[in-house]
Queue: 3 jobs
Job 1
Amino acid sequence: MMARAAWPRGLTAALLTSALVLAGCASRSAAPSAGVGLAEAPAADTPSAVSLRDPDISDIAGARGQVLGRNDHLLLYRPAAGDSLRGIAARFLGNADRAWWLAEANPGTVAEVGVPLLVPLRPLNPLGVHADRMQTVPILCYHRLGAGRSKMIVSPANFEAQMTWLVHAGYHVVRLPELSAFLAGEKPLPQRSVVITFDDGYESVYRHAFPVLKRLGLPATAFVYIDFVGGGDALSWPQMQEMLASGLIDIQSHTKSHRNLVERKPGETEDRHRAAVDLELRVPRETLERRLAPLRVRYLAYPYGDADELVLDRAARQGVELAATVIPGGNPFYAQPLLLHRTMIFGDMSLETFKSKLQTSRPLSAP
Ligand SMILES: [Zn+2]
């Protein structure tokens, strides 16, 4: 039953009704013009709640309309000329970037003058579950960029075309901490959210991907294995420092040596194998945190995408919060944080194939 929360349709109708009643009451006692009299809602104490206090509307361009009614969760708003979703989000949600909350609560709206719209003051559907479908967040996995015919090498031109298309198609490229908060039910993500990752730590990430990501303002995570860093065509420490300093690129663990964590070496006892897995997880965390301070390492990409029960147990004990496989597909609210699905992007993919890999929604009937 829980998964069948029929928002926005049913809830919207109910809230519209109560909000209109509220507005009716308020108009008898408060000045009807700007609706500021309705702003004194009690402060919310949940950490994810936004401020409910109305800033001085004369400071906010793009949100000069009227508040028709509100409670702690929702506000009904009548846009005025010149209003925009970003302006309304800035006025009531304290952040213009939350305009997508409005877009999702009012499908198809553009803040039309006089047409009331809902302003969710808190995330109403943080898990992205609807009557017939659920939101899923794909994580893209790249390796090397450059020339060459290997499947594992994506040309810089293709990479740029893919990133540019994401931006133009309205995708939101999000960071791993945001995905973590989504899975914990703490923070909603825009419907078209996607995470970008690079495995191994090739120098070509710095040379070819970083400039594109910087130009478009897109965040990404590079999973590096420590034994590779500074080698032939690997990232150097100064390159990683520079990427981190941009605020866009995160550096996380791909183990120490890139050995397959689920395979026992010939003659390796259970105890020795466990100790080896611990070392593969601990060394990159300690090394990256020391060399790239104040970086915190809590995300992991399994070499070859492989993990078993022992690996999951050791990773959890070492405080790994998210870990990625290479099982393709998006991640819904119930995704296991240490077995995240991830979609490989190959060098021979056309842009059409790339688009088809972005699974941002799945029917409830086919979980
Ligand atoms: Zn790898």
Note: The mean pLDDT is 85.
Job 2
Amino acid sequence: MGSEPETETTKELILIIGYLQLEGDVMSKALVVYGTGTAAITAQEIALTLQKQGIEVKVVNAKKEKIQSIAEYDLVVVGSGIQMGRWTGEPEKFLKKFKKDLVTKKVALFVNCGSAAEKLNPDKPEIAANAKRKYLEEKAAKYDLNCVMFGFFGAIYNFNTMSWIMKKGMESERPKLAVSYKETEPGVFDTRDIGEIQKWEQTLAEKFVFP
Ligand SMILES: Cc1cc2nc3c(=O)[nH]c(=O)nc-3n(C[C@H](O)[C@H](O)[C@H](O)COP(=O)(O)O)c2cc1C
């Protein structure tokens, strides 16, 4: 009967190893970084979807919080609004600061921009195509990123808070915005395709959990 305790011990060991493996899976962590308004909304939505898949997620507004290390994260999602043809400051600085560390991570980039609001320029698909290349593909190439996904999402135009010069430029587009997109509150037009973003988030979560 000397073998019985051993069998029990073996069973216990198997359970412990299984538990540790499970813990290992549960401990998969994602970091979502953004710096401005529309990107913030998208970042929160991405985080929610990842969390629903059991992934631990930290969302950081890089404008407010200094990130010291990304060592603990397996997936890093970085998103920016596009202003004057560029990424906004903080997400770009984040890519620069962690360039070396990001090479070893799974990375997803997303942008929110007016160029993705294709209903404003239905006869000019090249606008979106060029923007996608410039703001996502070229950005990934610049920082040697191993991108699992690129997200090219629409803009939110808030006529209540935009600068007068921006307002002046956008005023002629306002009737088109009103016809083509949802006015979520007076003066705020959301050109994002929420269904498309949700599908993107779901695919990202699946790619991360079952690579
Ligand atoms: C000052 C300003 C400049 C902008 N410039 C561009 C641009 O060059 N290209 C573009 O596609 N969208 C442009 N947009 C639209 C923004 O990309 C859009 O409003 C986006 O939702 C902003 O995201 P954010 O709040 O995260 O920065 C601009 C918006 C603002 C307010």
Note: Confidence is low (pLDDT under 50) at residues 14-26.
Job 3
Amino acid sequence: MTKTWDFNFIFEGKRDECLLNSLFLLDMIHAKHLHKYFGDLHVLDDVGLHIQEKEIVSIVGASGAGKTTLLQILGTLDFPSSGELYLKGQNIYKLSKRELTRFRNEHIGFVFQFHQLLPEFTAMENVCIPAFIRNTPKKQAERKAQELLEFLGLSDRISHKPSELSGGEQQRVAVARALINDPEIILADEPSGNLDSESAENLHRLFFKLRAEFGQTFVIVTHNEELAEMVDRKLTMVDGKIH
Ligand SMILES: Nc1ncnc2c1ncn2[C@@H]1O[C@H](COP(=O)(O)OP(=O)(O)OP(=O)(O)O)[C@@H](O)[C@H]1O
Ligand SMILES: [Mg+2]
């Protein structure tokens, strides 16, 4: 009898937690009326987005639809021709150049299709770079990099350079580099586009494992059907509009 009551109590607690979460979950990314023109080309056409804390969202769409352009703008690497962007509630276009650089470095991690690791540096050194940019002491950065590389199953590849790693391993190093500063937002552009199907599947599983472990928000541009369907929400871009 007592056991049943205990169980119900736990269940009720969980339900309340879910209710609270759905009421108070923070909008991690909120974009309003984004337009982007490259000359006469209208690449983003009134894009609006709400992405909540801990959501994993995919963006799919034909080549040239505007996916990378949108991701670059959400990541503050590029600016819209007009529109507003709020990340963690912060009105991004109110920040000075220096504040914006700092915001990006602290809160956003990027994973690209071609991982863009620096060839002359080891896995460990590549992962540490964003931490050094943030002036994290060397020992502390290396300890964190070591933990991340171990978490990603790369403990025996730490001193290897990118040319000595497989494509999947290089991509995991890039994921570790994206995570070193504990960003809440991870933006990934075709992260598995360059990988064989097994490595791609492993990488996709990793995103969910990371979310479960560290609670980040993910926006993933992908052509990979399986990944696009696995996520919490799939957005489709057609001619610069989100559907
Ligand atoms: N810097 C730029 N200058 C001019 N045109 C650009 C620039 N960047 C992108 N474009 C154009 O904007 C459109 C959208 O490009 P974008 O890279 O966002 O597409 P995408 O959806 O990511 O495509 P893909 O799936 O091929 O990566 C394309 O027509 C592209 O040629
Ligand atoms: Mg693209």
Note: The domain at 53-81+94-242 is CATH 3.40.50.300 (Rossmann fold).
